[in-house]
Amino acid sequence: MNLSPQLAGGSSAEFSNGRELAVSGNRMTVAQDANAANGDQNKLVVFEFDGTSMRKFKDFSVDFNVWGIHAEGETLYAIVDNSDELAIIPNFYTLPQGTLSATKRVSIEGMVRTHGLTYLGDRDMMLLTDVGAATSPDDGAFFLVSNFTAAAADGVISDDESIKISGPASLMGNPVDIAYDRATDMVYVAERANGGGRVLGFNRPTADGDMTPAYNDLFAGASAIHLADE
Q1: Among 24, 104, 172, 177, which one is least packed by beta carbons within 10 Å?
Q2: Checking DSSP bridges between strand 104-108 and strand 85-89, what pairing results, if any?
Q3: Cβ contact 71:23 at 8 Å
Q4: pTM tops 0.70
């Protein structure tokens, strides 16, 4: 459509090397990935907004590499980058700012390097992407976990508690983000490596395996995806 975004509001720069955003109510959280420019500090920076006004509310230094984040009410879900883990932080917005360790970490069997996520609280369904080796354009995957709360209770999502889609037909190499369309039960993935970047759409899977996407659009540099509920 070639539309230009229109700035609705902003704030002073409070982070650098940002990765993903998560919004809950009038609060927006930014994941800052550590690099030399920010003193090699992984952070979660929280802003409050009201119309066009936005201000920093608090920030947290965290002891793991961050990437994808998702907020559901007062709980923040955060990818532990360079691992097979997901961090869960309940009561996130009421915690005092400062150094923060995840209340709970959950590992996913069969995962190499988790990256993107989305959670549907009303369905208790978690979706996660696996980029595998960053240098490989054909070893990516996504995981769908139903009954996530029960599956994650023991700290491990086992093979029989998830559905994994991967393989050459899927066209996934470095799937960096994921979204879900409730209306059509479609899973959408931002694929960064294959073909220089794609947006892929999959029918909701019911079993492990390779799957040909029902939607496949070349999109150079695809790095994030979000689907707004109507």
Answers
A1: 104
A2: antiparallel
A3: yes
A4: yes
